[in-house]
Amino acid sequence: MTDVTREIVVDLDALRHNIDMLSARVAPAEVMVVVKNDAYGHGLLDVATTSVQAGVTWIGALDVPTALTLRRGGITPPTRIFAWLIDPEEDLAPAIAAGIDLGISTVPQLETAAASTDAAAARIHLKIDTGLHRNGATAEDWPRLVERARELEQRGVVEIVAIWTHIAEASDDEDTQSIRRFEAAVDAARGLGVRAPVRHLAASAAAYARSDARFDLVRLGAFVYGLPPGDGPSAEDMGLRQAMTLRARVTTVESAPDGRRRASIDLGYADGISTFAPGRIDVAIHGRRRPLISPLEVDRAWIGLDGDTDVSVGDVVTLWGDGSAGEPTLQQWGDATSTMSEELVVRLSPSIPRRIV
Amino acid sequence: MSGPHELHPAPPRRAVISLETVRSNTRLLLDQPSSGRVVADLRGDAYGHGAAAVATALDDLQLDAFLVSNETDAQAVDALALSTPSILRSRLVPDSTTLLGPQLFGLDSAELRDPRARGLLPALTLSARVLSVKTVGAGEGVSYGYVYRTPRATTLAMVCLGYSDGIDRHACDGGRAWFAGSTHPIAGRVAMDVFMLDVDDSPVSPGDEVVLFGDEQHGYPSPVAWAGALGKTGAEVTASLGDRIVRSYR
User: Fold this and answer.
1) Residue A97 needs a FRET pair 20 to 30 A away by CA distance; which of A49, A170, A267, B67 works?
2) Chain segment A160-214, per-residue pLDDT in tens
3) For residue A135, which residues of chain B lie inside 8 Å, CB to CB?
4) CB B232 within 8 A of CB A275
5) What is the H or E stretch that residue A81 is in?
6) Residue A224: which of A31, A29, A9, A5 has the closest Cα?
7) Does domain B19-112 have CATH number 3.20.20.10?
8) Which residues are paired to B249 by β-bridges?
9) How far apart are CA A36 and CA A63, in angstroms?
10) How close is the nearest chain B Cα to the Cα of A76, in Å?
11) pLDDT tens, residue by residue, B76-92
12) What are the domain boundaries of chain B?
């Protein structure tokens, strides 16, 4: 750390390692690296640029503003950028002009996209709901959506690039049912004249575990950042490396009202530290674990020092990382605070300085 | 809490903040006897309400100082050239200072559990747009892990707020949001960017607005009740709302 009191460190080597390992594992399926929410707090353009340099041809942006930021930031064709969270009142023309692929779930969305094309056809991915019940057309609405898309395709205003879905990861059996429904939807679309669509269904966990979930393309978010699900194998066990480290310097050392020694750091709940962390997680100082203790304040956290007398102002506290400085991993943080590591990283405040290494 | 500032938020997620409510809460608190200096605690960007806007609104109320979290926030407040100075925690003298923090915004804290009983009203209304709707049959699982099953055939609205915006993944465990005159259960795990609301047979269309919390005089869940269902205080909830939520003032 330089002269800052807290920082996020992002290890691009770890990111490249994860992309290489996962790409080899899911081949011949292609990889889409998902960079929503500022690349899960790791830095949108750094992650997207690193991914493209590592050979990734698809970037998942979430929404149109993020997709356009990526295009302006140098993620140019032939790299594909996919946006699927569409506002019903959004102007899609800039996205279509920039060659952004759009996730389409309803006929009204389809009509909006078709009406927004100028020179180039709108590149669309038609979404089928296979059980998650968020967006995606229901099985009953699917033929109508596909038929209308085909009509618009024949008029040259849209191009049906892909068929996709999102599964619930509730259980292997439930996911198998979703895969069957997806295959049925793809068959139905082919029957309606859709030619050779790219098929994508799986996010990180299913892409890693199930060859029958990979189809042509997998969407990888959490695992690219080295964030496995909770209560399971560690990142290391899975051949992944956690890319993010969160550190802070000790800003005070004092005796608490109860007489016990404690140290503070300038990270509080307004910075995204979980209010469930005190009493449930240890952090590392000088390679030794020390407990986060109550109270967690709006802009400050406290660490119990017990008998440790050699901690002083300016010492580095590692809250989470890959474990190499004795600290817990994000998976361990997620398990300890009853959530997933993704929630911990995307809730970090953008005011925390980020350093790329 | 994510996204660089140049990412213009779309689809819309809104926090509308009533500065008049913050002022009336402050006046109410200042009417009570206190000793020593009275400092407005605007740490954590005024608990998510925007330190610069709140400081401007409170400048004429004879507060002794605005407490902010760091040098950056201090410079932002000082740049407003107000008559009330900003200070950092290192300059606070705890025993001779009355600190007014979450209660300014009608929020609970460890020190004050029921702000409304003291006449303090919530200043922030959090709302978001419905992106899409769908009808499903009875007994259908919703969202990751299928922890929610539809109790009957119903309509689900997909609302564009998720845990990256500061809405806890577990808000489905008893959490309710307001739509069209009444509150409805959050259906299934809150995802990173959206949650599903089970609106039963209420007519709902893409573009409609859902309110997560606000002033219960309008029928909205209060921030105190919303946070309490999550095992948190209202101050903890509003201070950790994400940057994609666009703040506006009235």
Assistant:
1) A49
2) 999 999 998 888 999 999 999 999 999 999 999 999 999 999 999 999 999 999 9
3) 131-132, 134, 158
4) yes
5) strand A80-83
6) A31
7) yes
8) B17
9) 8
10) 18
11) 999 999 999 999 998 88
12) 19-112, 124-249
